[in-house]
Amino acid sequence: MTPTLVWVMVAAIAAGVLTLATIVYARRRGLLDEPGERRSHAEATPRGGGLAIVLVVATGLAYLSGLEKSPFAVAALAGVVLVAGVGWLDDHRDLSIRLRLIAHIVAAGLLAWASGLGPLWGGLVFIAAVVLINVWNFMDGINGIAASQAAVFAGLASVLLGLALPHALAVIFLGACLGFLPFNFPKARIFMGDVGSGTLGFLVAVLLCAALMEAGGYRGVLPLLFPLAPFLVDAGWTLLARMRQRERWWTAHVTHVYQVWARIAGSHVPVTLAYLSLALAGAAIALGVQGMDINFIKISLTLWYTSLSLAWWILRKQGFARTF
Asked: Which keywords are on file for this protein (predicted)?
């Protein structure tokens, strides 16, 4: 058994035990998500299970930051604490959008500063972190979808990132997601909550930033963008559609393609599995183009995102998402 597999298993077991503890806590505190017209579930379910992922990853980051003496690891840990902290508070009582956004901005700013990438790339890291935190919040609406997408990304990152710190973080992140998933899919015994979804998005940004630092440019980032396509396409085009229709795009809704599909199917399972299959396909493409000419990678990435965007548009146009 390889050391990587051992660490994945350790992180998964720890996350599983902590998820069980969080279920008990949530039920005792009455932290339940009730069904409603802006929800995709049919019965009251505990929330805040993402805390298990946060605790496992934060512990790993604390160890790595002490081991590596890395400002980047310290900034990543601080960002996790900020994003998870404000999410945990929001899971207990609704916080203002402004307060949550301030925490996201500070976390993203710390990450960009610690990267040492300069104004241009640092600015892009900052924007990516804020965007990904909120993309994962928007897309965490059915059983298993947020953790499974993050797991695929983390798995690919653990293969592609060569430096010790980001590789170890990706491995721990993967294990934590896998440990949480059995409690959230196919039937949800607990929801991830804002404490988890926002943190997953931030950790994706951390690993993208690490790839940018490791490669000394964007070449290392491009392959990692392939498995992100299902989330970024659905979130991005849905957001633009809502803005065009002058809706309150920052509020909860059920108009993402994955949400409409789940209602039509009458089950979360086929939708989560479909998005998982797309993410895995993206990861396979990323591994296939790794090391090839940069222009070929760019063309492949463009075609991949264009294909999924076309699929999104067809589903919407032809009445699949008729409730938009």
From this structure: Cell membrane, Membrane, Transferase, Transmembrane, Transmembrane helix
pTM score above 0.90: yes
Instruction: Tell me, yes or no, whether 167 lies in a domain.
Output: yes
Q: Are 185 and 19 in contact (CB under 8 A)?
A: no
User: E strands along 34-172, which residues?
Assistant: 45-46
Residue at 200 is within a domain? yes
Q: Could you give the 3-state DSSP secondary structure of residue 44? A: coil
If one counts the domains in the chain, the total is: 1
Decide: residue 42, CB within 10 A, 0-12 exposed, 13-18 middle, 19+ buried.
exposed
User: In which domain, by residue range, is 158 found?
Assistant: 3-317
**Rounded Cα distance, 128 and 111, in Å:** 11
Find out whether 199 and 84 touch, Cβ atoms under 8 Å: yes
Phi-psi region of 216 (alpha: psi -120 to 50; beta: other; left: phi over 0): left
**Tens of pLDDT, residues 114-134:** 999 989 999 999 999 999 999
| Residue whose C-alpha is closest to residue 63's, from 110, 106, 10, 135 | 10
Other Cβ atoms closer than 10 A to 113: 15
Is the separation of the CB atoms in 191 and 46 below 8 Å?
yes
- For residue 213 the two structure tokens come to 């630092």
323 is a domain residue: no
Q: Within a domain: residue 187?
A: yes
From the list 312, 100, 301, the residue with the least C-alpha distance to 202 is 100
Q: How far apart are CA 19 and CA 257, in angstroms?
A: 29
